[in-house]
Amino acid sequence: MRTLRTRVAIVGAGPAGLMLSHLLHRSGIESVVVDHRTHEQIATTIRAGILEAGSVRLLVDSGVSDRVVTEGDRHDGVVLRFDDENHRIDFQDLVGESVWLYPQTDVFLDLAARRKADGGDVRYGVSDTAVDIGDRPAMTFTDSDGVATRVEAELLIGADGSHSICRRAIPPGIRTEWFREYPFAWFGFLAEAPQSHPELIYTRSAHGFALISQRTPAMQRMYFQCSPDERVEDWSEDRIWAEMRKRVNGNGFELNEGPISGAMVLPFRSFVTAPMRHGRMLLAGDAAHTVPPTGAKGLNLALADVRVLHEVITEFLADGDEDVLGVYTDRALDRVWKAQHFSYWMTTMLHSAAGATAFDIERQRGELSLITGSRHGAAYLAEAYTGWQHSK
Ligand code: PHB
Hints:
Blueprint: E1 2-5, E2 8-11, H1 15-26, E3 31-34, H2 39-43, E4 50-52, H3 53-61, H4 67-70, E5 73-75, E6 77-82, E7 85-90, H5 91-95, E8 99-101, H6 104-117, E9 121-123, E10 127-132, E11 138-142, E12 148-152, E13 155-158, H7 165-169, E14 176-181, E15 185-192, E16 201-204, E17 210-216, E18 219-226, H8 237-248, E19 260-266, E20 269-274, E21 277-278, E22 281-283, E23 289-290, H9 298-319, H10 323-326, H11 328-350, H12 358-372, H13 375-386
Parallel strand pairs: 1-12, 2-3, 2-13, 3-9, 6-16, 13-22
Antiparallel strand pairs: 4-8, 5-8, 6-7, 10-11, 11-12, 14-20, 15-18, 15-19, 16-17, 17-18, 20-23, 21-22
Helix pairs in contact: 1-6, 1-9, 9-11
P-hydroxybenzoic acid binds at residues 48-50, 200, 213, 221, 293-294, 296.
C-alpha cells in the first residue's frame, strides 16, 4: 500500500469538495481530494442551475472564475404562475438582490480547471474508498492506476453526496436524522428550443407542478411533477409536450417546443443529519442534507457549508483547538434548516398532493395570492430565493 500524508483529506470532488480544496489552497493548506466518479462522469451529469448572489461572490472573489458573470445569466426575478396568470416576483425591487442561472456542471468545470491549474491533488475514478475516522483520520482507495493508496491527514471531510460513506462511518447512536418523503418526483428534460420566457416560471396547475428554466438561448431545461415510480422510457416526446402544454399553456402563453434529451426522474426528499462533525471528520453538502429541488437550494447550501468549514478548518489547523471544530454544526445548521423550510414550503405551495381536498386546493390558492398580492409576502420569497444576504 502506498501511503501519503496531507493536512486535509476530502472525499468527493463535486462543487463542495473542490471549493473547499481551493479555499484551503489559498490559505496555504494542502489537501487531497478523491472521487469514485471520473471527471467525465461528473461533467456530464445534469444538475440544477441557480446560484444565489453569495455563491456567485464566493466563486468570483476566490478567483475560481469570472465565467459565472460573463456567461451566466443574471435573473432579477422569477414568475409564479397559477390560474393561467403570471405573477412576477421582482427580487431587485423587493430585496435588492439577484440570482444567476449558471449550471452546476459549469461550476464543477471551473473549479476542476482552477484546481488543476494550481497543481491541486484531485483524483477522479478511484475505487473501493473507505474512511478511518479515528484520531488520525485517513482515507484508503484504489487509485485509477490500480495502486492501493492510503492518505493520512489531520482532518477528513465528507463531501461525498447523499450516499455518503463518511456520514455512515459516524456511529448510528451519535447521529440524529430527520427525513421527509414526498409522494411525487420531478420529470426533468432538456429541450432544443428558443426560450419561452426570459425568467424561470414556477407553475401550479390543476394537472400538477411544472417549471420552465433555461440553459442557453437555444437549450431549455424543464420539469414537471410526476409519480416517484415514473419510468423515462414510458414518455415519448409527444407525451412530454402534451403534459407540459396542459400545465403551462393558456391565456396568451405558449411554450416553445423542440427535440428532447437528457430526460430523468429526480427523487424528492428532505433530509438532515446532525452532528455534521464527529471527531476529526466534518460533513459538507448533500452528505449532510438534501432538499427538494423546488427552492434551488442544494448547491448553494453546499457552498455555504464550505464557506463556514474553511473558516473553522483554518482556525483549527492554526492552533489545534478541537473546540473550534465543535461550532461547525450549529453554524451550518442554522442556514440548513432555513433552506429546508423554504424548499418544503415552495414544494407544498406549488405541487398537487394526491388526496388533496377542495379545502386544501383553495387554501393553496390563498397562499399563492398572499405571496403574489402582497409586497411583504413577495419579499419573503425574494429574500429566501436569493439567499438571505441581508439577514443572519
Ligand atoms: C434548473 O434550471 O435546473 C433548476 C432551476 C430552479 C430549480 C430547480 C432546477 O428550482
